[in-house]
């Protein structure tokens, strides 16, 4: 009986250890496709977690709605016009049809890279450059699924507490980083328990969170 009890204890310890080691941190990014600061973050900052392996410890949630508004008739008006609404729909469809963040991020990264170059009208070239099949995304958009997804993202965005003040609005485990969003990797590493992955080396957490919106830079504000 003693050996059985010891075995049970060992199994519980192993289970706890496995659960602790599988701890994943939520990283949510609320953005809009034509905000230059959102594009810059997606193109220049976010790829680092894919390159250094930190993505293995992260549940990534991209929410392409941003500062858009919903009319009384359910229509969507985007901060940077109809082109932004269109690309928001396309990126929402990409997230839906390719749930794997490695896949949909490769496509969104490509589109936002074109946005940075003011070549976003060439967004469809990203199917070719990523090797992804265009048909699922095209079908999603043509069937109106993209707009339905955007309404869901609108509900998520409008339910944020505290409410978002601008984009990019980056949250780690539900906590907004305010204007310190470029330091997101340090916040992820700080949220991890136990032995830190090598990807966390060199990331020191800045403990001061900017809450004075008058001092915030690099954002697209709500009008």
Automatic annotation (TrEMBL):
InterPro entries, per the entry: Interferon-induced_GILT (IPR004911)
Annotated signal sequence range: 1-22
Compartment(s): Secreted
Gene Ontology cellular component annotations, sorted alphabetically: extracellular region
Signal among keywords: yes
Keyword terms, alphabetized: Glycoprotein, Secreted, Signal
Family label: Belongs to the GILT family.
Protein name: Gamma-interferon-responsive lysosomal thiol protein-like
Organism of origin: Dioscorea cayennensis subsp. rotundata
Gene that encodes the chain: LOC120268746
